[in-house]
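Worked problem 6 (solution included).
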Amino acid sequence: MVLKGLFWVMVVIILIFNLFPAVYALVSSFRPSQELFSTEVIPRSLTLDHYLAVFKDPRFVMSLVNSIIIAGSTVLIALGLGSLCAYALGRLPFRYKGSVLYLVLTMTMFPQIAVLSGLFVMLKTLGLFNTRPGLVMTYLIFTMPFTIWVMTQYFRSLPKELEEAAYVDGASPLTVFWEVLLPLTVPGMISTGLLAFIGAWNEFLFALTFTVTDTMKTVPVVISQFSGTSAYEQPWGSIMAASMVVTIPLVILVMFFQHRIVAGLTAGAVKG
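Solution. The predicted structure is:
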């Protein structure tokens, strides 16, 4: 009984620790400007002025469009190419397959700052600096290895009998991939795609470095550039409102697909 009580106390403490910043930001986004620095947990009044202010800002609206296009394109390309690579690494026999897979994993260990200068030179040479395709290309550096690694484990977990039956019927490896195995990987693709989308949506360093005009900047960069003349004159209400606008849709997506996310991430843990 005592252990059960301690368990629930720990659960409550962890929930408060993790949820308090988000709840405080949500409440602050509805506080009037004069109450933003109030120590009262429950605001005396609520307002939508901060949300109206951010949606009247053309920079923020444009950055939303940019983030949706860039993150969505990144995920589609990563899933398209990543699933093909994962199929080859997970199902097709060839030499040094394990070495290639670990090389892919190694690519995720480099900090972004380490490849920043090389990417800058590459984008300038290709004429993709300050463009959406340029950002998509740089985002694939961290989304592709993640996609390939997770999807490889998922392809490995699928029953070999399905593949063998298709080969007996005369199917080619590409036909097996497209018509037999790929439909079974939908939970894995949803979970991988959603996590890759969140990573691309929240990315800041590449977007800050490789964009210079307001028409190309993404949401995290634009929010970071909301500024005032001093710390107390910063538009904290607008910052909180903008943060909620870009965070709540992700929370809704995760809650809506939570069962598929869990199924996709755990399916590769067992062999079929």
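Discussion: The domain at 54-267 is CATH 1.10.3720.10 (MetI-like fold).
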